[in-house]
Design brief:
The radius of gyration is 39 Å and the shape is elongated. Strands 1-2-3-4-6-5 form a six-stranded antiparallel beta sheet, with helices on one face. By secondary structure, it is of the alpha+beta class. Helix 17 (715-734) packs across helix 18 (739-751). Helix content is 30%, strand content 25%. The protein is built from 21 helices and 34 strands. Residues 284-305 are annotated as: Disordered. This is SpoIIE family protein phosphatase. Keywords: Hydrolase.
């Protein structure tokens, strides 16, 4: 891949819309191979995130993936990817080198509805996701581009609220203090006023130079997804977090951030902070929603003059659903002077409601909890109608979300859009009898006004989630397809879910239908809790391997965690059992709280068989949202197939390796008075044996047979002939046949294989160590590279003449040659994988091998073989593409007697 990047005003190869100004660009070229698609996605993701456009990353990655796939897979050419940042948005261009290829510019309904259709999907996605797109042709390439506009983030909005009576004004302390904190471009404090010193206890001299994130005690506003660090990068932001005071206590504050720049152009951020209960001092009011911006006159409707929704509804950004819902419940609580409020959104099928925002309640426990729309048959059993409960103690369980919260009276109203239930809004108080039908009518009016804004924001969020899910699944599929190792597949499954989908994950595998599931992998976002989580899950019976699709709730880990926490608490206060038994180490209280939330199990089903379970969990009392469960279900189907593929691959690899190992001699025998060294390398991934082979075996007392051969081709087919040759050599030699007779009978056996036969080059010899320290060899070289003899004086010569190879003709007339190795001499035998090693047009050849051997005078057989291998490997940069075998025989010099000389 080749990547370049440009700056302001860079030239672009394709025309841009009129008045568009290019501020940055980055380009990359990807070769026509499958892995380029993942590389292009990573390039676009890194580029846009580097430019600070994380809002549109998922859309851009999905579209780039489709267009690059068309170029490198379908068109079969290299792909040029260009990212342009303009004052209007981001433009991505993908060009291939195949201009003759047709591009479908229109799609009818039948084509679009056909799920098996291969062509045009990338352009259909462009039409559905991109702001604009197009196709451009030139004489040398075809280019598809798409434009994504950036979401608007206005720096601020002027607003005003209606006049309110005194008793309706927000409550504040007699002395309202506003901390003014200014940060430089790096987020360090450059100004800290007197009110900041009083509110937080930090002197200005000690606060200057420190980052605001050093003081922040909470990561973000409850119920929203924007952190402090992200908020400081926005042009304007409002929200709640905590500031850690000098005495260690946390001061809840409401903050308004405004990003500015000085005359020199240097950016900085001004932060105004007040106590959280005084948020009305800073909270941005919104324009009334009446026609033309005029406020509705008092008395036109219930609560019109004093309704906090009068200055709120319609103003929140439609793409900030969490902020909209959180502010809605706070306004609803304030409007009815309640102690708590909550808002639920309906699922797509309108059968359940999911808690999305709350105030005054334990939000961690309530968030994403689900309740049925039709909870009972009574008067107030349906969320589709307004309801007032004057005293919940009289009707226990009427509102399950408020159980154990101390709330006694509650009013709930539905959110509806065009007659369809989209949610429910409730306000509760700790006192009984606080609400009547009048309050229900006021809340219903407010709910009717906010319902459309909520539904629009929900649909926007849902669309963003679906696009993000598509990008997530594309990346996950690439990662899972990139490995066939079982353990790595298990690790990838867990790492893709934590922390993106869940706080912790456990993968169970099922080896056999009758076997009990085995806990195979555990991961927690906090690494310090993994061991405790394993211990806890080890004490719990695994979930049943049920093939029913979809996520099902599994309460065993949560129950075990709470039981463990209770036992630990009792032991800590001396209220444990009196049996005197020693309790082994169990899960800690921290581990118990970390897994005490909702736990779901998704079956891993591949080829109509349950091969495991994917278990996802949340920390104490948290719940999964429905969209996350649907995404996890899609992931589990892909992960199951990848896991089963890795299992099948492992089984077949084990069988293949076992068969391959049977083709190699188990071990080399010790030959008295002769050093022997063999080096073997098989070409091809996962191959231990190929077309090259070697052997050394005893024939009879004092005699040894040795062979080195090369079957035409590589891989399993060549290995089959290898097995035939090696075993036939041993059998025939031990029957007393001489070298020529052995090879002639082996030639007949190879020809008998018919169409499966392959020709074979073979060097076969018999070795007799002599009493005078030398060694006698009888050698037959049947079409094989000639063996080389290295004498003590450094001269190198061939030790045998070439003769016809095996497996080609019926009648062979072979003869053997006699060679005597004197002390210090070496006989080197290799296959053509050594001599035919290439680097471009150069080849090592027989002369090159002889030159390497000439430098080996005085070396042992092992050192000779190692030096030859090193020379072969260094001859070319690319890995060897042919099998290779090296056999070195050396007669050592006699050792000097002690004291001699």
């Amino acid at each position: 891949m080749r990547v370049t990047e440009g700056g302001d005003g860079g030239s672009v190869p394709a025309p841009l819309p009129a008045l568009a100004v290019v501020t940055a660009q980055a380009t990359a070229t990807f070769p026509p191979v499958g892995r380029s698609v993942a590389g292009a996605r990573a390039f676009v993701r890194d580029t846009l995130q580097g430019w600070g456009h994380s809002d549109i990353v998922d859309d851009a990655v999905v579209l780039t993936s489709e267009l690059v796939t068309n170029a490198v897979v379908h068109a079969g050419t290299a792909a040029d990817v260009l990212c342009l940042r303009t004052d209007r948005g981001v433009r991505v261009e993908v060009a291939d080198r195949y201009p003759e290829r047709d591009v479908p510019l229109q799609f009818n309904a039948a084509q679009a509805a056909n799920p098996d259709r291969e062509g045009g999907r990338g352009l259909m996605l462009c039409g559905a996701i991109a702001t604009s797109w197009g196709v451009e042709y030139s004489a040398t390439h075809k280019q598809v581009w798409f434009q994504l506009d950036l979401p608007e983030r206005p720096a601020g909005t002027r607003s005003a609220g209606p006049a309110l009576p005194v008793d309706a004004l927000p409550v504040a302390d007699s002395r309202v203090r506003v901390a003014v904190v200014q940060l430089d471009g790096d987020g360090a404090v450059s100004s800290w006023n007197e009110d900041a010193e009083v509110l937080f206890g930090h002197e200005a001299a000690k606060a200057l130079g420190r980052r605001l994130t050093d003081f922040a005690a909470w990561p973000h506003t409850p119920g929203t997804s924007t952190g402090i660090a992200e908020a400081l990068q926005l042009s304007r932001w409002e929200g709640s977090y905590g500031i850690r005071a000098a005495d260690g206590r946390v001061v809840p504050v409401y903050a308004a951030h405004l990003r500015v720049r000085d005359a020199a152009g240097a950016p900085s951020t001004v932060c105004l902070l007040v106590r959280d209960h005084e948020r009305a001092v800073l909270q941005t009011a919104s324009r009334p929603t009446g026609s033309g911006g005029d406020a509705t006159a008092p008395g036109d409707r219930p609560g019109s003059a004093t309704d906090p929704f009068e200055v709120f509804i319609g103003s929140p950004a439609p793409d900030d659903l969490d902020g909209l819902l959180q502010r809605t419940v706070e306004r609803a609580r304030d409007m009815l002077d309640g102690d708590a409020a909550y808002l639920l959104l309906a699922t797509d099928d309108e059968t359940e409601l999911e808690v999305r925002a709350s105030t005054g309640l334990p939000s961690a426990r309530q968030r994403f909890a689900r309740v049925p729309v039709e909870a009972g048959t009574g008067r107030y059993g349906s969320a589709r109608m307004p309801a007032v409960h004057e005293d919940l103690t009289v009707v226990p369980g009427a509102v399950p979300l408020l159980a154990g919260t101390g709330m006694r009276s509650v009013v709930t109203v539905p959110l509806k859009v065009e007659g369809r239930l989209t949610g429910s809004l409730g306000v509760a108080a700790e006192a009984a009898g606080r609400y009547s039908n009048e309050e229900a009518l006021r809340l219903q009016f407010a709910a009717d006004r906010i319902a459309l804004a909520v539904e629009r924001a929900r649909l926007t969020e849902l669309e963003r989630l679906r696009r993000g899910s598509l990008s997530f699944l594309v990346e996950a599929s690439d990662l899972l397809a990139g490995t066939l190792d079982r353990d790595q597949t298990l690790a990838l499954m867990a790492q893709m879910t934590v922390p993106t989908l869940a706080t912790w994950c456990a993968v169970y595998t099922v080896g056999d239908q009758s076997a009990e599931p085995e806990l195979s992998y555990v991961l927690h976002e906090d690494e310090d809790r993994i061991d405790g989580l394993k211990t806890l899950l080890g004490k719990v019976a695994p979930p049943d391997p049920v093939p029913t699709p979809g996520a099902r709730v599994w309460t065993a880990p949560s129950d075990a965690a709470h039981s463990s926490a209770l036992r630990s608490s009792l032991r800590n206060v001396g209220l444990g059992d009196d049996s005197g038994a020693t309790h082994g180490p169990g899960p800690s209280l921290a581990t118990a709280s970390a897994v005490g939330g909702e736990t779901v199990v998704l079956p891993l089903v591949a080829r109509n068989r349950v091969i495991g379970m994917l278990t996802l969990g949340k920390p104490s009392d948290e719940h999964f949202r429905q969209e996350i469960l649907e995404l996890a279900e899609d992931l589990s189907r892909r992960a199951a197939l990848a896991l089963d593929n890795s299992r099948l691959y492992s089984e077949r690899t084990a069988i293949s390796q076992s068969l391959q190992r049977s083709l190699l001699p188990p071990e080399l025998p010790d030959v008295p008075g002769v050093e022997v060294e063999v080096i073997y390398r098989a070409a091809g991934e996962g191959n231990e044996v190929g077309g090259d082979f070697y052997d050394l075996f005893p024939i009879r007392d004092g005699a040894y047979g040795f062979a080195i051969g090369d079957v035409c081709g590589t891989g399993p087919e060549a290995a089959a002939v290898t097995g035939l040759a090696r075993h036939a050599l041993r059998l025939l030699a031990r029957e007393g046949f001489g070298g020529p007779a052995v090879l002639e009978r082996l030639n007949a056996a190879i020809l008998d294989e018919g169409a499966r036969s392959r020709f074979l080059t073979l060097l076969y010899g018999e070795l007799w160590p002599q009493e005078d320290g030398s060694a006698l060899l009888k050698v037959v070289c049947a079409g094989h590279p000639q063996p080389l003899r290295l004498r003590q004086d450094g001269t190198v010569e061939t030790a045998a003449e070439p003769q016809p190879l095996l497996g080609v003709m019926d009648d062979l007339e072979l003869h053997e040659e006699t060679v005597t190795l004197s002390p210090g001499d070496v006989l080197l035998c290799v296959t053509d994988g050594v001599t035919e090693r290439r680097e471009g047009l150069r080849m090592l050849g027989d002369d090159g091998l002889a030159a390497v051997l000439a430098t080996c005078t005085g070396l042992t057989a092992g050192a000779v073989a190692a030096r030859v291998l090193r020379a072969v490997e260094r001859f070319a940069a690319e890995p060897a593409s042919d099998d290779m075998a090296i056999l070195a025989l050396r007669v050592p010099e006699p050792r000097a007697e002690p004291g001699s000389g």
